[in-house]
Design brief:
The complex is a heterodimer. Helix content of chain A is 76%, strand content 0%. Chain A has helices spanning 11-22, 25-37, 44-71, 77-84, 88-93, 96-125, 140-155, 170-188, 190-217, 230-238, 248-261, 269-273, 283-323, 325-340, 344-378, 382-402, 408-446, 457-491, 493-522; one strand at 4-5. In chain A, α9 packs across α13 (283-323) and α15 crosses α19 (493-522). Chain A is globular and about 75 Å long. By secondary structure, chain B is mainly alpha-helical. Chain B has one helix at residues 3-28, and one strand at 41-42. Chain B is rod-shaped, with a radius of gyration of 20 Å. In chain B, 16% of the residues are buried. Classes of the chains: A mainly alpha, B mainly alpha.
């Protein structure tokens, strides 16, 4: 239906693009914090259970639905969900698959700018000035305060509008740079833009991670604190607390980490897979993309972040850093670690550049589903579709930057869209796949061109376990959190207005879906999935 | 670092590294004729 025929260049290119979408800041900052808070090494047991029983199976279902939709001539989540879910309800629920990546992009590109700006700050520090103004000779408390002060000023946490108040703010300059970069690569298309960039960026990210890992694992402890060795730092992350496994929260946290880390229910895989051909393998490709994500998360995130924090801050300092969350750990604590590390400016530069690569390979995937949707719904060119989505993304991103006080707009979108709606979309997808599309047909479709067989028990997992888990998670969220979230949004005008903005985007996407459905029907396409593919 | 800490770390790392190496080995050893040429067809 789209006027511009897009396709992937190579099998490896698709895998690296999907891996790039999955590997993000969460692999390096969120995962180690979650593990440390939920039993250390013991956390890996629920974590790997969730990977094998939820993450990889739901991922396979998404890949399969995407390619099936592509065989019908569709590339957007609403159209594909309409085909797989056979009707208007699934089609309009599929709007969530466009909304999530687009709305998350509003704030993610801002964070991406922080990573590049921090890398730049460390690059400048190589030539003399202390990075971020942190004086390594001062007490650790003073360094932490300085680092926190820099981050607060850098992100405009003190006051709304301060970032766009007329003076040139470094984080806004870097936001603009990465925003333009993203639009450029997305405009270039799948193989010439996204795939080409990821094919270069993913290996580069691995090299950066290896450099930092090698450096951290060979650090000598400060003679004043000889107990803070690398081995003790690894122990902080990996020593198991078996009692944590009795807490259902640890199992939910593990499933949540897997879920968000692999980008399932995000609306990206379904779009990316729709450009694959009938005989293209998707079982091995899906598994390879998942394993790449795990390599970065467990192999690098699990080995670097808390180990380096422990060596310089000790157990108490590391625990305090973990409690501040991903932003606190990544942008406030680690700069203190780098300030005290020999050659820390070099390692800081490599580390934040690696985070930037992780972020940009993810953000590139966020615009693509919306651009594909506009192309498909309006029958317009890629250039026009990119222009329209860039305009919306610009408004959303400027909104996040303007309402920077306590990062309220960013947090609202992250909570409602980047956390809650992901689970909702995954539930919709897995129910449509297992119960409407049908497991027999689903497995047959998945095995077309496959170089690997999906184990038989995965049928049971996709049909029963995954939907049950997701529905329980949604039910528990509604019971425990939804009321508080609504109350908070009522009380805080920024939160409320941010939700209205998201609502307007949903209305816009619904109108496009309505227009698109008419066009697709007029063109004779199988909008409700009533016929087998013709290819 | 306790013994169980070492065991869990080594097992976890071995699992993810082995899985990744095995997957890429299989992907890269597939017949080259199945690989497509790099192209974007702009027919608009």
């Amino acid at each position: 239906m789209s006027q511009n025929k897009q396709e992937w260049g190579t099998r490896l290119g698709v895998i690296l693009a999907v891996s790039g979408s999955a590997v993000g800041l969460g692999n390096f900052l969120r995962f180690p914090g979650q593990a440390a808070q939920h039993g250390g090494g013991a956390f890996m047991i629920p974590y790997f259970c969730a990977l094998l029983l939820l993450g990889i199976p739901i991922g396979w279902a998404e890949w399969t639905m995407g390619r099936y939709g592509g065989r019908k001539g569709f590339h957007s989540a609403p159209a594909i969900m309409g085909v797989v879910g056979r009707g208007a309800v699934a089609r309009y629920l599929g709007i969530i698959g466009v909304l999530i990546p687009l709305a998350v992009y509003f704030y993610y590109v801002f964070i991406e700018g922080w990573c590049l700006a921090y890398a730049w700050e460390y690059a400048k520090a190589i030539f003399g000035t202390p990075a971020l103004g942190i004086d390594s000779q001062a007490a650790i408390e003073a360094q932490s305060a300085k680092s926190a002060e820099f981050f607060a000023s850098f992100t405009g946490r003190a006051q709304d509008g301060v970032m766009l108040g007329g003076t040139i703010v470094e984080s806004v300059v870097f936001w603009a740079i990465v925003f333009v970069l993203n639009v450029w690569f997305v405009f270039r298309g799948l193989s010439k833009g996204i795939e080409k960039f990821c094919t270069w960026a993913m290996p580069s990210m691995a090299v950066c991670a290896l450099i930092v890992l090698g450096y951290v694992l060979t650090l000598e402890p400060d003679p004043a604190t000889p107990e803070r060795t690398v081995t003790a730092g690894l122990g902080y992350m990996w020593n198991p607390d078996w009692n944590a496994l009795r807490d259902p929260g640890a199992w939910l946290a593990a499933a949540g980490q897997i879920f968000f880390s692999l980008s399932v229910g995000f609306g990206v895989i379904i779009n990316y897979a729709s450009y694959m051909k009938r005989k293209d393998d998707l079982v091995l490709s899906g598994l390879t993309a998942s394993s790449t994500n795990e390599l970065f998360e467990v192999g690098f995130g699990g080995m670097i972040t808390l180990t380096s924090a422990f060596i310089f801050l000790g157990a108490t300092g590391t625990a305090a850093a973990v409690a501040t969350g991903s932003f606190g750990l990544g942008f406030t604590t680690l700069p203190v670690v780098f300030a005290n590390m020999p050659a820390g400016q070099w390692i800081g530069m490599v580390w934040f550049f690696m985070l930037f690569l992780a972020a940009i390979t993810s953000s590139l995937s966020m615009l693509q589903p919306a651009v594909a949707f506009v192309e498909e719904a309006l029958g317009t060119s890629r250039a026009k579709a990119t222009g329209l989505i860039t305009g919306i993304a610009l408004i959303g991103s400027l909104w996040v930057i303007w309402f920077s006080k306590d990062l309220a707009a960013l947090a609202t979108i992250d909570d409602w869209v980047g956390t809650f709606l992901i689970v909702v979309l995954a539930a919709v997808q897995v129910i449509c796949f297992g119960w409407v599309f049908g497991m027999d047909r689903g497995m047959r479709e998945a095995h077309e061109g496959a170089h690997l067989r999906i184990p038989g028990f995965i049928r049971f997992v996709i049909k029963y376990i995954a939907p049950l888990y997701l529905l329980i998670a949604i039910g528990m969220f509604c019971k425990n959190n939804l009321g508080n979230w609504i109350e908070a949004a009522r009380a805080n005008p920024v939160q409320r207005n941010t939700l209205i903005l998201i609502g307007l985007v949903i209305v816009f996407l619904a109108v496009l879906t309505h227009i698109g459905t008419k066009r697709w029907r007029a063109a004779g396409l199988d909008v409700d999935g009533e016929r087998p593919p013709q290819d | 670092m306790t013994t169980f800490g070492w065991i869990l770390m080594i097992c976890s790392l071995s699992f993810v590294v082995s899985l990744t190496v095995w997957c890429y080995k299989r992907v890269l050893s597939l017949p080259p004729e199945e690989k497509k040429s790099v192209k974007d067809i702009h027919s608009a």
